[in-house]
Amino acid sequence: MKCPFCGYEDSKVMDTRPTEEGYTIRRRRECLNCQKRFTTYEKVEQSPVMVIKKDGNRQAFDRDKIINGIIKSCEKRPVSAAQVEEAVSNIEKKIENSMKKEISSYEIGEMVMDELKELDEVSYVRFASVYREFKDLQSFIDELENIVKKKN
């Protein structure tokens, strides 16, 4: 493993442990040249899931896009980075467990909304307003009323 600090191509593993979800191995390494330590993650390589966009185009699933969307909707809300990471991991697991090679962006959006609904209602409404492309105020109000009904 190449050192991110000095570029030396050899390091020794100091510690190895599985991550909480158990699908990834975390390794603490030390560069044999500069003695700085760094962390690497080892994950089972899977064939990429293709996302079918609204316009019919296909692109490889990108976890970072989901993270960025959730972070934007949770901006200035009491949602921690760990909660965002857990929500994204839940979505990723659902996609992997579906065993589909292709999934629509609509299905992913619904999964994100389900996670946000449990995480923070304001973040959910923010995401929904962009995702569902509310055309007018009434459709926005209808969505808010649905949230209130399900809560009671």
From TrEMBL:
Report the residue ranges that make up the ATP-cone domain in this protein: 49-139
Question: How are cofactors bound according to the entry's free-text note?
Answer: Binds 1 zinc ion.
Cofactor requirement:
Zn(2+)
Question: In its keyword annotation, does this UniProt entry include Signal?
Answer: no
What are the entry keywords? ATP-binding, DNA-binding, Metal-binding, Nucleotide-binding, Repressor, Transcription, Transcription regulation, Zinc, Zinc-finger
**Residue ranges covered by zinc fingers (unnamed):** 3-34
Q: Which PROSITE patterns match?
A: ATP_CONE (PS51161)
Instruction: Determine if DNA-binding is one of this entry's keywords.
Output: yes
Pfam families from the xrefs? ATP-cone, Zn_ribbon_NrdR
Family assignment? Belongs to the NrdR family.
Please explain the role this protein plays, according to its UniProt record. Negatively regulates transcription of bacterial ribonucleotide reductase nrd genes and operons by binding to NrdR-boxes.
Record's protein name? Transcriptional repressor NrdR
Report the source organism. Answer: Peptoniphilus ovalis
Q: From the UniProt record, report the name of the gene that encodes this protein.
A: nrdR
